[in-house]
Design brief:
This protein has helices spanning 17-29, 31-41, 55-74, 83-87, 105-114, 119-126, 160-179, 261-277, 303-308; strands at 9-12, 46-47, 89-94, 98-103, 133-134, 145-147, 153-158, 188-196, 202-208, 217-223, 285-290. The protein has 310 residues and is of the alpha+beta class. A hairpin with a 5-residue loop joins strand 8 (188-196) and strand 9. Helix 3 runs antiparallel to helix 6 (119-126).
Length: 310
């Protein structure tokens, strides 16, 4: 199911060097204490440094995303959304010998703004300001998973077929989020392709990380509602490895939603009905356990909202 395309546009990408210098200057001002705390929060994740086999590719992704976001900043979408917003393909050719494609760029730019996400923050997190972090997933797919250096955004490689289906459903996905701003569906923020020289295109998507901020999260779960192959060997006690556990690891535990139960279950019904309409079967309920400080107990507000609050 190919997504419609009005014909690709190709431009020579601007250099992110100025953005890199600004990011580097900002990083130097953070101070030693901030960097030590940031390093501690990354335990179990792996910096993709110059010795890493994926370093060159992720550097291209960073430079490409910096330039792609700059386009949406220089030419913000105006007026009501159009069909072209969802079908536009913009290809930027970089002097470093690669091309980065941005699919449905105006549609995703509108979506990011509707979620209150500033392009400047998005660009700073995904651009060359710091190395991406590799996340070793327990998923059986062959996809590669990355986190932005601040762990706010999640990047995942996708097959071309998966991208085509995603783009075909994108208008209805955006409409669903507009109707249901408290939807529990993952927030998709961008779809891109990367081609080095004359090689094969690699596709990847960008999402908001469900597990942000990560500093106080002690347990993470990926729940599918079945028991077949749904066990992950826990990390040894005291290990810094970050694991996402599964259904059988959650056995014997319960979730008390309190006064949030009614809307939460209703929203799950709406979201699953939407996925059923799209004939989408692959799903997960991602959950995180975050211990409360003493002064946070008994406040009567939702743990969900505290977890995602910056």
């Amino acid at each position: 199911m190919a997504a419609p395309s009005p014909g690709p546009r190709e431009v020579l990408a601007s250099s992110p060097e100025a953005g890199s210098r600004a990011a580097a200057a900002g990083s130097s001002r953070r101070g030693l204490l901030w960097r030590l705390r940031d390093k501690q929060s990354r335990l179990g994740l792996f910096e993709i440094d110059p010795g890493h086999e994926l370093h060159q590719m992720t550097c291209m992704m960073q430079a490409g995303l910096w330039a792609a976001t700059q386009v949406s900043m220089d030419h913000p979408p105006t007026g009501p959304p159009t069909e072209e917003d969802f079908s536009q393909v913009l290809t930027q050719v970089h002097e470093q010998g690669f091309e980065l494609g941005t699919l449905a760029g105006p549609a995703f730019a509108r979506l990011r703004r509707s979620l209150g996400l500033a392009d400047e923050d998005y660009q700073a997190a995904l651009g060359p300001g710091g190395p991406y972090l590799q996340f070793l997933s327990t998923s059986k797919s062959k996809a590669s998973f990355f986190l932005s250096h601040d762990q706010r955004f999640f990047l995942k490689t996708q097959r071309r077929r998966e991208v085509q289906v995603l783009l075909a459903h994108l208008p209805r996905y955006v409409q669903h989020l507009q109707r249901h701003p408290h939807s529990l569906l993952a927030r998709l923020l961008g779809v891109h392709s990367l081609r080095v020289a004359q090689g094969k295109k690699k596709y990847f998507i960008i999402m908001q990380s469900v597990f942000f901020p990560a500093g106080r999260i002690s347990e993470r779960y990926d729940i599918k509602g079945c028991e077949v192959s749904r066990w992950v060997d826990p990390a040894p006690e005291g290990s810094p490895i970050v694991l996402v556990l599964k259904d059988l690891n959650f056995e014997g535990k319960t979730i008390n939603l309190g006064p949030q139960r009614s809307w939460f279950l209703r929203q799950m019904e709406l979201d699953t009905a939407f996925l059923r309409e799209l004939n989408v079967l692959d799903y997960s309920l991602l959950m995180a356990f975050q211990r409360l400080h003493e002064d946070e107990k008994g406040l009567g507000c939702s743990l969900i909202f505290r977890t995602v609050r910056p």
